[in-house]
Amino acid sequence: MSLLETLNPEQLAAVTLPRASALILAGAGSGKTKVLTARIAWLIQTGQVGPSGVLAVTFTNKAAKEMLTRISAMLPINTRSMWVGTFHGLCNRMLRAHWKEAGLPQAFQILDTQDQLSAIKRMYKVLGIDAEKFPPKQLAHFVGAAKEQGLRPKDVDAYDEYHRMMVRLYEAYEMQCQREGVVDFSELLLRSFELLGANPALRAHYQARFKYILVDEFQDTNALQYNWLKRLAGEQGCIFAVGDDDQSIYAFRGARVANMAQFELDFNVQNRIKLEQNYRSVGNVLTAANALISNNKSRLGKELWTQAGEGEPIRVYEATSDQDEAAFVIERIKKLVLEEGFSRSDIAVLYRSNAQSRVIEQGLFNAGIAYRVYGGLRFFERAEIKHALAYLRLLDNADDDNSFSRVVNFPVRGIGSRTIEQLQDTATAQGTSLFRAIVGMQGRSQASLQKFADLIDRMRFETRGMPLPELVDKVIHDSGLIAHFEKDKDGEDRVENLKELVNAAASFSVSEGYYQDTPATMLDEEKLTTPLADFLSHASLEAGDNAAAAGQDAVQLMTVHSAKGLEFHCVFVTGLEEGLFPHENSLSTSVSGSDGGAVDGVEEERRLMYVAITRAREQLYLSHAQQRMLHGQIRYHLRSRFLDELPENVLKWLTPKRAHIASQGWSGLDNQIGWGAQSIHGNRAALSYTSKAPRPYPIGTGVNHARFGDGVVVAYEGEGEEQRIQINFGAQGMKWLMLSLAKLTKS
DNA sequence: GCGTTAGTTATTTTT
DNA sequence: TAACTAACGC
Length: 747
What we know:
Blueprint: H1 2-5, H2 9-15, E1 22-26, H3 32-45, E2 54-58, H4 61-74, E3 83-86, H5 87-97, E4 109-111, H6 113-127, H7 136-148, H8 161-180, E5 182-184, H9 185-198, H10 200-209, E6 212-215, H11 223-233, E7 239-243, H12 258-266, E8 271-275, H13 283-293, E9 314-321, H14 322-338, E10 347-351, H15 357-367, E11 371-373, H16 383-396, H17 401-407, H18 417-430, H19 434-437, H20 443-462, H21 468-478, H22 481-487, H23 492-511, H24 531-541, E12 555-559, H25 560-563, E13 568-573, H26 584-587, H27 601-613, E14 616-630, E15 633-636, H28 641-644, E16 651-653, H29 668-681, H30 684-687, E17 702-705, E18 709-717, E19 724-728, E20 734-738, E21 744-746
Parallel strand pairs: 1-7, 1-8, 2-3, 2-6, 4-5, 6-7, 9-14, 9-16, 10-12, 10-13, 11-12, 13-14
Antiparallel strand pairs: 14-15, 17-18, 17-21, 18-19, 19-20
Helix pairs in contact: 2-3, 3-4, 5-9, 6-7, 9-11, 13-27, 14-15, 16-17, 16-20, 16-24, 21-23, 22-23
This protein binds a DNA duplex (15 and 10 nucleotides) through α5, α9, α25 and α26.
EC number: 5.6.2.4
InterPro entries: DExx_box_DNA_helicase_dom_sf, DNA_helicase_UvrD-like_C, DNA_helicase_UvrD/REP, P-loop_NTPase, UvrD-like_ATP-bd
Family: Belongs to the helicase family. UvrD subfamily.
């Protein structure tokens, strides 16, 4: 069978496994998606299951789309009845089909993170809660964490006054969502989970239907996602889980690598297959990656190998400053493009945190090299788009107070905060939505509110039965949004974006509507969604591309996190400094995690570094800077421990490797740079600039301390016996020591 | 209601 | 540094 011909033995074994649960440990670049899609194709082609018996779940829409595309290329089947999507997308699909049983209105809306926050703030106003004492973000986090544990307010144990309050607020928030007919992201999962739990017939139906369940990026599943899968699969279920514990980098948002081991127990997994042959990178890159990750203790164990040659050595550069680092990267990029024939888009510059992109961007801009930064606002998150969506939502569900509040006075129609307050009071008193409370208002404010209500009602009436793109077009005009931004002198882009929304609706209409025409079973038939409802779900669940628009062939700039799953011919990993990468905030979290599971912060940072390294196909550049501007201050950092964990024989130092960071090679000039900048910014060190106290170790030099080890001198203060010295000891942290007492040696 | 200003804060991110 | 938020004043 041609389908199987291009597979290596391990891939083949995975693809053709008999019907039983299996864990596939798929290393970076080992053909994970290929295995996943070939497995589905093989199952269908050999008649073991029909398309409607397959459910495949991913984390991102991009991955889901990719999977569908590949399956369609392999098999001439209609994929509509197959459930392929994100956890949230599939849960939404289920809830739309069974909204009644799930206790939701048919036109329930989905709150994204922004919406959730404004919902909480609105609730605070009504209840008179102090946002200083209970930050909305904290409540959102609390609610999310509880839902991930499968806990409703009544199930949450509160130990102190603060937590008792959080539980009460969780309860109030839940009631508000229910009243307004909205669900947040975690609610989609929890509702779907509870729906399956409370409804045996439905559960049996889905368990019988989905004979084969496949999970991508299994190491990223959280507790609720895992339990949802378990419940959906049932006793006889068959889950094909693909993941890589070494690429688990989302513990901070609830991912539990431990689910992999738990899965093997819960599902009595007899088949664990490792995919270790790498088809992406040259040997040196893999040697470096393997060596680095071997420093992690908690691993399932796996080592990448390749048939490709060693390739070039990994180049390492020690820059004097962040500026210098950027200059190095840009010089190298020029060389790669002009002399070595790479496209700009073959090149990626990776960093640990977004703030680091600025210096690189400036450098690229000045050099006239096209670049593209990932990680900004996405299309459906833009304010003007949110406004348009709010109008659209009100057509579908007038009780959506979030949307109502967003646009009741936008564009301005003389409805001030005073009026809104009165309306809110009326609504609260009557226990209804803002929209419904309008009729109970008095006087002038009633009139202006009624005009708004009439506008919504009229748009709803006039767009009935209209094709989606036309509907959207009508709403952005009739709402006054277009006119408003046309008047605004910097509203051009916003008008453009609103028109783009019409295009988005048009392309959505042709590509989607997947579950309208093909009810796979009797139970699915209840669902009758409208194109508008589907489009609104789509807008909430798929916020769109987050890359800044730029020239076609552009250098790619992104965080290491967003680089996961991608590959580039040439990769620069920048900012390899203690405190940045590994990030200082990760050093303290040795044991945490919402479920109490052990989560080692540094181990996760190391996995992140592993992800960074394994993005490179041919050339890998690693760099760090002696000093860099951070939060408006110059900071000195030690070289990252991760650099020292790489085997020397695959590295080529472009600057001399120093035994200890900053031990030699500090020219007088370098010192002056550090000095000048410090005095400009007037920090503590600058105070001592004018003092005549002797400085046995100039700022920037390396010193050794018996207890704290190697560090870099950062600042001085005081004089004589009182004179203190500040040293950055990397992992040991930043310390102020009495100079007369500290036993320091030059390192 | 809107623009200004002072204060605050600072990984990582998808849905 | 710079981006964001909340509060203030017209």
